[in-house]
Amino acid sequence: MIPSEIRFLFSSNHAFVDASSTGRNYTYAHLWTYKEHLSHRIKELGIASEQVILIQSNRTDELCLTIAALFLCEQAFCVVDTYVNENNLKQLANKHRFHKIWDEPFISNEITKSSVLKSKPSLETISISFQPKHEVFGYLFTSGSTGEASLIPLRYSQLIAATKNSENFISLSPNQTWGIPLSFHHIGALSVLLKCMLWGSAISLSSGSDYKRWNRWLSGDSTCRIISLVPTQLHHWLAHNKQNAISVDPAKNFGYVLLGGGPSNALDIQEAIQMKWPIMLSYGMTETFAHVSSGDAYELDSIQKFSVSTPLPVGRLDHSLSLDLRSDGRDSFIWLKGDQIVRPDSRTAPLHDRFDEEGWFCTGDIGELDKNGNLVIHARRSDRIVSGGENVAPKRVQDVLLKSPSVKDVHIFGKDDPVWGQKVVAVIQLHEEKGSQRTTNTKQVIQSLTDYCKKELPTSHIPKEIQIVSTIPRTTLGKIRWVELQNILNKA
After folding, report:
1. What is the crossing angle of helices 60-72 and 28-44, to 10°?
2. 438, containing H or E segment
3. Which of 121, 340, 393, 484 could form a disulfide with 12 if both were Cys (CB 3.0 to 4.6 A apart)?
4. Rounded distance, CA 113 to CA 62, Å?
5. Each residue of 20-56: pLDDT tens digit?
């Protein structure tokens, strides 16, 4: 379903982005100037609106400006992680029929040409409205069961539904900002940018570990009202403040620290609550256009009863969505339905397999509702590990390790961890000639394999724990014999 109209009304002098990487602040007048320039540039280059532009940049503030301008130009785009090298980028473009790649130098050059920083508003307000020509405005990649990147379409209807659902707990006024220390190839950051544009509010950017800046956000020494973090970032933030004897009292007008992208550590939530930090727990994924449930941590029953290994409730499902828990005889899988849920298009046909005949979407996650009606996630999709808010494809890690001449067999799994939510664990069986040396050089072998992974994998995929075993027990079909493997690991 295509919305009949998308409407924006901005005050040209209001903040659009409070940037940290360069210290520049952009207003909606800057965005308007760059949007006008980019619109003409797209026509000069002969790029049709249905053609998809791949964007890759380390310059977060300028990347933010480019994404927003492309969206207002109705130009389809896809933001790609910076770890994707040039060859892989071109392979993705060919595979998915993407027609243009804009990299960091291109973005910087176009912003310079538009003289965006020198622009002066000629109008007090900027009004933009358009009737979308296409249902899909962009794409993101997310890891799948094969280890290959899966393409997820992003629709206008999802954005509108997600914005309305966010308004149930937060709605920002002009010049109020949403703090984002996440990368824009994550739906958690991209969705915030677009929601703020619909509100006419602003975003505040930081690196993934700028604790000093986050403390200012929380204390009210800024216009920030909400911060989006993954649980690992909260853990390191709390540890940093404790180590440096920093105490931060949240401002009265501060809204929430919104946690998503993986399981939260109950001990961290307990610590944050003791300091009166307002924590909002959530659940979602790229396919659901970020969070579809949210819950105030203060409303949890007896937070002290939860341990590191106990999953925390992630709140109630947003009213516009429907939930169905379907059992396979052992576990209950989460199925969702609503305007915020992904729908396949011509580029993403494999997504059809995750829908039933009535349009219900299978998340692949295992969960239940507690006595208060809150959603509890017991296990994320079985083909994925969520570590530090990053999706990890086990097969990709496995395939890299199997290329090592010393490795005979590998099994990769996620293990609950108080820092990372889940950490990547590699169980490795070495070839016999290497295995015979195991008692004397295990540490060297593990270090060698870790170094090998660092050359081949993004940081999120590198195993944080490697265990060398004499054998990896499997069935005749190649599946892991979990009880036997657990016994071997306990003895290792």
Report:
1. 70
2. helix 438-456
3. 121
4. 13
5. 556 678 999 999 999 999 999 999 999 998 899 999 9
Element (H, E) at 486: helix 482-491
Query: Is 147 a member of any domain?
Result: no
Where in 80-123 does DSSP place strands (E)? Answer: 100-102
* Contact indicator for 287, 152 with CB cutoff of 8 Å: yes
- The total of other beta-carbon atoms located within 10 Å of residue 97's CB is 10
Q: What is the arithmetic mean of pLDDT over 289-313?
A: 80
Q: What is the pLDDT of residue 22?
A: 60
Task: Write out pLDDT tens, residues 319-338.
Answer: 899 999 998 877 789 999 99
Give domain status of residue 144, yes or no: no
Residue 380, amino acid: R
| Cβ contact 480:473 at 8 Å | yes
Total domain count, the chain: 3
In this structure, are 334 and 404 located in the same domain? no
CATH of the domain at 442: 3.30.300.30
* C-alpha R_g of the chain: 23
- Domain span at residue 275? 153-384
- Pairing, β 224-229 against β 256-259: parallel
Question: Are 171 and 198 in contact, with CB atoms under 8 Å apart?
Answer: no
Give strand ranges (E) for 51-196. 53-55, 77-79, 100-102, 125-130, 136-143, 149-155, 177-180
| 361 and 398 belong to one structural domain | no
Task: With CA atoms as reference, report the closest residue to 421 among 379, 363, 364.
Answer: 379
Token reading at 429: 């069986």
